[in-house]
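Work Package 3 (structural annotation) set out to generate three-dimensional models for the target panel prioritized at the project kickoff. During this period the team completed the workflow that converts sequence records into discrete structure tokens, so that structures can be stored uniformly alongside our sequence database. As a representative example, we reproduce one entry of 287 residues exactly as it appears in the project archive.
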Amino acid sequence: MSPFGGWGMLTAFLVLLCCRGSRVKAFEGPEHLMVGSGEFQLINCTASCTDPKKLVLETHLNKTLLDSQAQWKLFKVANISKDEKLLCSFTCGDRQETKVFNITVFYPPKQVLLTLWPTSVVIGTLFTIECRVPAVAPLEGLTVTLLRGTEILYNQTIVGTAPSPQDALVSHNTTAHREDGHHNFSCKAQMDLRSRGGGLVHRVSDPQRLEVKEPEPKTQMVIIIAVVIVLLLVFVTFVFLCFVFSQKWHRGRTGYYAVQDHWRRLIGSHRAQTLTDEEAPRGERLT
């Protein structure tokens, strides 16, 4: 049933109340009507005279006569899927009169889908609340509200003029707090059609919970220590490689390593000193 079907039933009740057994003009209702896609609408064709002829409702849609009196007829028009103009015509004496009912089809929010990403966060980190309302029109009458419990976190009125149904998407980034884990998150979509002769239509998503975790300082300290150790290893390796390459470079120029040359000189000097010490007593004996 249309979200405004209650109004249609009230119209039918007023028609029956005012017109049955009466000769006065009946209540006709508004000429501009808002109908949900695929729903039905009650149309009351009422003549301006007391004895009209050929009182009919002209439409290609499926219509059913619910009730009638001499001055009015009540029709149910079903399966309205696009904007329509319904023509109510009648003849009073030698004068033919018509009345046009302009029907605007809207696509109410039938689903409201809430997504929390990620679903598990650490206090102080960002997470995203996303709300999607599939296939709604008109967009300019839609307001999407993101809720934490009963608190409004974010509110956005959609801007758009396309008459065809489209998905409405609202996304909001926020920082995780400790109390976030104690509340349900939800999304409310509200379509306001009062300026077009309609009413208020709203739907709320299923609630979702966010898992909030405490930060882990020990893990951060382990990461810092590991980084420092890696940097020290890189530095020691760099110094060692510099030493090795410098030795190779020196050998390429002199043909030997400087360290080995230094040790050779020390060994040669030691041997020379030893020979001198051994020859000295021998000379003393010759003297």
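Helices lie at 5-19, 217-254, 258-286.
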